[in-house]
Every structure is written in C-alpha cells, then in structure tokens.
C-alpha cells in the first residue's frame, strides 16, 4: 500500500516537473530550436536596462497640465443629479407607523414620520447637515440636497 502511494506521489511530482520544463522551453524558444527550426530567436521579455536609458522625452509634460484651465464650479455643475450617499436597507412597522433604515456615509439612519425611536430623522430634519428629509411617503423618501435640489430615494422592494 505504501509503495503504491509513493509511486503515485512520485509520478505526480515527475509530471509536474516535466510540465515546468516544457513551459520553460516554450517560453525561451528552445522548443522551436529542438524541433529543427533554427530561424526562431528567443525573445527577451525583460531586457537589461540602465538608468541612462530613461530620458526626459519619456516623462509626461507637466507644464501643459499646469497651464490648463479648469472650469469653475457653478450652480449648474453643483446641481447635477448626484446620487444620494445612502440607500434603504430595511423597514418595519410599529403599529401603523412605518420605520425605514438607511445605510451610508459610514452611518445608519432611521427615518419615520412621527415615531419615538431615539435618534430617528423626521420630516423637516437634516441628515449630516446636508440632506433635509422633506417627506417620507409609501414608495419613496424625498430629500433636499446640499444644492437645494429635490432628491428621491425609492423605498419599494424592502419587504412591506
């Protein structure tokens, strides 16, 4: 039994070694030379290179980038449709009250219309000094973003 296991292991190692040698030969072009094809020259994928070969012409032109004009941040750019930095991850009901949980900006937020959950955000209150909850509806939550634009978070598909 031990002899059979040793021969299996030995055979597996031999096959692995043979495959490694074959791959090395193919990579170096030795297989083509061994088959009699003398016209094939091996390719050096990583040729030796000195520091002197790196010239200034190889470097990117940073002066052109420094002189380039950048557009000014206008209200039109700020008011573009930015996605909300949080998403609805859960909801539950307490009596007739719907409570929604948001996750984002490294925190968890609880939204409700008039619940008594500690730390909950109610309509008219602000999340992280940027997003004011305008309304909490059956299908969505409406926020006023930093640029004063209305943003909608869809709440369908959470389970209730």
Explain what the structure shows.
By secondary structure, this protein is of the alpha+beta class. Among the domains are: 1-39; 83-154, Roll (SH3 type barrels), CATH 2.30.30. It is built from four helices and seven strands, in the order H-H-H-H-E-E-E-E-E-E-E. Strands 4-5-6-7 form a four-stranded antiparallel β-sheet, with no helix packed on it. The longest helix has 27 residues, at 2-28. The radius of gyration is 33 Å and the shape is elongated. The chain starts with a helix and ends in a 6-residue tail after the last strand. The model is unreliable at 1-9 (pLDDT under 50). Residues 1-34 form the signal peptide. Keywords: Signal.
Number of strands: 7
Cα shape:
elongated
User: What does the largest sheet look like?
Assistant: 4 strands, antiparallel
Strand order of the largest sheet: 4-5-6-7
Mean pLDDT: 75
Short summary:
Residues 1-34 form the signal peptide. By secondary structure, the chain is α+β, with helices and mostly antiparallel strands. It is built from 4 helices and 7 strands, in the order ααααβββββββ.
Could you outline the blueprint of secondary structure elements for this entry?
Blueprint: H1 2-28, H2 30-34, H3 62-67, H4 75-78, E1 86-94, E2 97-104, E3 107-112, E4 126-127, E5 131-136, E6 140-144, E7 150-154
Antiparallel strand pairs: 1-2, 2-3, 4-5, 5-6, 6-7
Keywords for this structure?
three-stranded antiparallel beta sheet; 26% helix; disordered N terminus; 160 residues; alpha+beta; 26% strand; SH3 type barrels
């Amino acid at each position: 039994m031990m002899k059979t296991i040793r021969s299996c292991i030995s055979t597996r190692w031999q096959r692995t070694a043979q495959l490694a040698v074959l791959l090395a030969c193919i990579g170096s072009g030795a297989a083509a030379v061994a088959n009699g094809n003398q016209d094939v020259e091996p390719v050096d994928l990583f040729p030796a290179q000195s520091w002197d070969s790196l010239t200034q012409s190889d470097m990117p032109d940073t002066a052109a980038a420094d002189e380039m004009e950048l557009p000014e941040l206008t209200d039109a750019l700020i008011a573009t449709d930015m996605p909300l930095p949080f998403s609805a991850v859960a909801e539950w009901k307490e009596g007739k009250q719907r409570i929604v949980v948001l996750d984002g900006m490294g925190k968890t937020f609880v939204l409700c219309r008039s619940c008594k959950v500690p730390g909950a955000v109610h309509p008219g209150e602000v999340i992280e000094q940027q997003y004011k909850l305008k309304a909490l509806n059956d299908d969505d939550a409406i926020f006023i973003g930093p640029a004063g634009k209305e943003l909608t978070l869809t709440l369908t598909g959470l389970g209730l």
